[in-house]
Amino acid sequence: MRLLPRSLFGRLVLLLLTGLVLAQLLSTFILLRDRGQVLYKSIRENLIIRTAGVVRLLDTLPAQDRQQLIPLLASPELQITLSGQPIPVPPLQRNSALASKLVRRELLHRLPQDTKILISIEDSLPQPQMPPMHRRHMMGGGPMSGPWAYMHGLHAMARFSHVQVQLQDGTWVHFKHGLSERLFDWPTRLLIVLGVLLISVILLSLIGVRSLIRPLRKLRQAAEGLGRDIRQPPLDETGPTEVRDTAKAFNTMQTRLKNYIEDRAGILAAVSHDLKTPLTRMRLRTDLMEDEELRAKTQKDLDDMESMVSATLDFMRGTETSESSRRLDLMALLESIQEDALETGGNVRFTGQVTRLYNGKPLALKRCIVNLVENAVRYGGQADIRVEDAEAAVVISICDRGPGIPEDVLKKVFDPFFRLENSRAQHTGGTGLGLGIERNIARAHGGELMLYNRPKGGLCVKLSLPR
After folding, report:
1. What is the signed CA dihedral for 439, 445, 447, 452, rounded to 10 degrees?
2. How far apart are CA 2 and CA 25, in angstroms?
3. Neighbouring residues of 190: CB distance < 8 A, sequence distance ≥ 6
4. Rama region for 142: left / alpha / beta (φ>0; ψ in -120 to 50; rest)
5. Widest distance between CA atoms in the chain
6. Buried (b) or exposed (e) across 41-75, using 16+ Cβ within 10 A?
7. In the prediction, which pLDDT does 146 show?
8. Strand-pair category, 383-389 with 393-399
9. Beta 448-453 vs 459-466: how paired, if at all?
10. What is the pLDDT of residues 182-205, one digit of tens each?
């Protein structure tokens, strides 16, 4: 999916954040719901108990003393008045009727069973300020609506505003209940605590994911460095079991590769030494030949054999060099190569600039670039060197004005001993290992060597050296 991050770090962070946010939202919903239930039940019971207590108290007082006591019993949320007749009650809807029955039943538990009670429920509640969850509970919507809400008394408490109770002497007590709008505000402190908790968990998760990804990053860097230097220091075998096992496997692989390359180099060195002895004997024998023409041909074959052996060893050892990497000035290196080529009569042009030092192997890079420039001058008449210094890599392009190479054999020129000429004679193209050696040098620096034909004729070699 395109929406998914490409990196493992991004995907783990996305997965953790999604799970944390969903879990936090669910927890917030449950907390607010439970808070609303407890809040509404507490207020309902308090108001019903208070109403019943006021009725029982007024029943014990003479009529002339009741009016003086009313202001002491009232509060901002509860207005109490006395009258000889009840206030007419409008017809109740089904939900309101159920709510009024619930309130009447609870009041009758605390009052005489023959007490007359009238309840009027209104909908004029402060809905704009209250949370949607509370509003659904109070107005009969959502998961707490219907009979479930009546069982908890939320619907009854929240919506009734007038209760009229007849005293034993026939006087009606009118209770007008009101709820403070602050009760319906969002619980700011609770939300702040939940927000701080969420942010803390997110930060800890990011730190944890980064610490888990760090060994993978080190493994990637070690894998990239392995192509440049097989003798680089091994990875630290520390951390969790999986990380230690992976680092141990990587170090084992590096050791085996290094042993394999060293064994191969040793075998090649031995073969090279052993071949020199019979080649020397053959040269001595050719000197004793009386036939001048046969002696010249034999010596030429021996020269070709010796050149091929040396080139083969260079090709096999292309990535094996004891030269260490260091900071070098590529501009100075390229300018010196251009000057050397001009002194020998080569037509070499140079454009571009490298502004920063490059970390590489000077002798290997010089050998690579010199061979590419000599090939361009030999087969294309001139060499146009263009260098581009980017943030991620230095790109050196060497182009000539020759006939180029057919497209179907561009990829084959890197194969060992592949030559465009039918002959393997040095004066017509060498041994066919030169480009392979240069590509090995480029890859030893973590780069690549590519060939392509110019639209107007000529061949270009692009040497990419990552920083």
Report:
1. -30
2. 26
3. 31, 32, 35
4. left
5. 157
6. eebbeebbebbbebbeebbeeeeeebeeeeeebee
7. 37
8. antiparallel
9. antiparallel
10. 655 667 777 788 788 888 888 888
CB atoms within 10 A of CB 218: 16
Residue with tokens 């919507």: 141
Summary mean pLDDT of the chain: 77
Calpha distance 373→388 (Å, rounded): 17
Q: Helices 132-139 & 8-59, crossing angle to 10 degrees?
A: 40
How far apart CA 212 and CA 246 sit, in angstroms, is 13
Please classify residue 157 by burial: count the beta carbons closer than 10 Å to its beta carbon, then call 0-12 exposed, 13-18 middle and 19+ buried: buried
Q: How far is CA 297 from the centre of its chain?
A: 67
**Is the CB of residue 189 less than 8 Å from the CB of residue 75?**
no
Show me where the domains of the chain are located: 8-189, 241-304, 324-466
**What kind and span of H or E run contains 264?**
helix 241-287
385: β partners: 350, 398
For domain 324-466, which CATH number applies: 3.30.565.10, 3.30.465.60, 3.90.1150.10, 3.30.420.40? Answer: 3.30.565.10
172: which strand partners? 83, 166
Give the predicted TM-score (pTM) of the model.
0.47
pLDDT in tens, 246-287: 888 988 998 888 887 777 777 776 777 777 778 888 888 888
326 with 359: CB under 8 angstroms? yes
Residue 352 has pLDDT above 70, yes or no: yes
Closest by CA position to 201, among listed 20, 437, 435, 79: 20
Q: What does the alpha-carbon distance between residue 295 and residue 26 come to, in Å, rounded to a whole number? A: 95
Amino acid at 48: I
Structure tokens at 261: 């390359």
